[in-house]
Amino acid sequence: MQAQPEKNRHRFKMPSAFTILFIIIIIIAVLSWFIPAGKYSTDSSGNLIANTYHTVKSNPQGLWDVVMSPVYGMVGDKNTDGAISVSLFILVIGGFLGVVNKTKALDAGISSIVNRYKGREKVLIPILMTLFALGGSTYGMAEETVAFYPLLIPVMMACGFDSIVAVALALVGTSVGNMASTVNPFATGVASQTLGISPGDGLVSRIIFFVIVDVIAIAFVMRYATKIQKDPTKSYVYAQREEDWKSFNIDERTNDVEPMTGRQKAVIWLFMAAFVIMIIGLVPWSSLNKHFTFFDTATTWLENIPVLGTLLGHDIAPLGTWYFSEITMLFLVMSVVVMWVYHMKEDVFIDAFMGGMADFVSVAMIVAIARGLQVVMNNGLITATILHAGETGLTHVSQSLFIILTFLFYVPMSFLIPSTSGLAAATMGIMGPLGHFAHVSGSLVITAYQAAEGWVGLVPPTSGVVMAALAISHVNLTTWWKWSLRLMLYLFIATVVFLAILAAI
Q1: Mean pLDDT (the chain, rounded)
Q2: What's phi and psi for 48, nearest 5 deg?
């Protein structure tokens, strides 16, 4: 009997990040028709007051609200801050990378790194992951990692790994760092201020927790990297390896054809200097130690110098107080400096900068659409109702059980509200008093909140950081979920055990 020809079957293809986010927004909008609307009373600082939840007239979100949510996600409205500062930063970073790539300095630098670490490529993994983890732990590094992926991906692939390893270095690194935030002003700082305790409370336990989760993450990534280095077919993205190799221009970037020129070396130093300055500018030095006021003093001194101070300006933000506006300015200025050092013509510079921005437009839009989810939740008045469910369910339990339930409560909340400071400000006024009733310290409640926020930060499609990283690296969301599942499980178990032990002692 002659074999029947196999019919063409339509294979399921994972929707794009844009589609996934719009589907979630629609689901939340539908839920706003069924979940009771509610609000909490707030104090003078805007913090929610426990046991003050009350129902209000519902405000179900309709079609107009759904289609407007990405717009308000970008520019903001009365209930939700817009993502325009983050999106603009991403676009300028793209322009900066476009200018740097035009010089071919990164290509030459990547080739040099590959040759230098040939035979011991895995050394890069613990070093880079720990550095990113420290960034997450100290100042909540997240969106800033977007700039690193175009550099990390070619390096990791050239070393025999894949794009998932490259994403893991920054995304997993910063996520585990956020899980054990030590002096992160957006997590530890906001939450501690809400509870009226010092950000230093619980610091020792968080340092121990940092070591634990960082070691787990490094071991997991190194095991995967070793496996695919020995057998590339074991890679979760092996099917697209050839395409990625061409897309990220690996051959050109790793072939040691010509030595680096003096101008290219200067560009590399400027490239690294830009990121060093960014990190120094973002770390809240005076909040870490009241005596760390060097940058504030230096800025005041410069501004008071006759003529020079006027020339520089009198509204200079000292290093340590920078945010997205300042680091956007930094990369814009550094783009011009690179042009000048490399002797690049103006028309070439403009074309390179605009081309780099164009490459990151989709990433910038993803961040705004992700923020649109918060817009629908807040305008639908269901955020407080979800918080109230946690408030009523976490009372009258043992200390260890309370802190575990607190962690579990923050898992879905971190998914729905992917804003570290926003989540802390919205919930800590409730969870802190609940912890007090259960005889659990406020610092431990903060640790549970941070652990959940960082843990969830690895996977949610509502996170602009995650979706941006995957978009840049050409990694499918479901592929990333499959790869990270066991790591999430290991980190979950370690977190639950650690929190339970701390609550019991």
Answers
A1: 83
A2: -70, 140
Written as six digits, the tokens of 485 are 């599942």
pLDDT of 6 > 70? The answer is no
Let me know: does 381 contact 59? Beta carbons within 8 Å: yes
Residue 150: name the closest of 483, 471, 476 by CA: 471
- Give the phi and the psi of residue 39 in degrees, each rounded to 5: -145, 160
pLDDT at 1: 46
Residue 471 identity (one-letter amino acid): A
Enter the DSSP assignment of 146: G
Which parts of 344-463 fold into alpha helices (H)?
A: 346-359, 361-379, 383-393, 399-416, 420-437, 442-456
pLDDT band at 131 (very low <50, low <70, confident <90, very high): confident
pLDDT single digits (tens) 194-222: 777 767 788 889 999 999 999 999 999 99
Average confidence (pLDDT) over 42-58: 76
Q: Which of 155, 36, 227, 218 is nearest to 473 (CA)?
A: 155
Q: 373-391: string of b/e by CB count within 10 Å (b at 16+)?
A: bbbbbbbbbbbbbbbbebb
DSSP 114: H
- For residues 121 and 159, the answer to whether their CB atoms sit within 8 Å is yes
How would you class 482 by CB atoms within 10 Å of its CB: exposed for 0-12, middle for 13-18, buried for 19 or more? Answer: exposed
> Distance of CA 30 to CAs 5, 27, 55, 66, 379, Å?
45, 5, 18, 10, 13
Judge whether residue 426 has pLDDT over 80. no
The C-alpha R_g of the chain, in whole angstroms, comes to 24
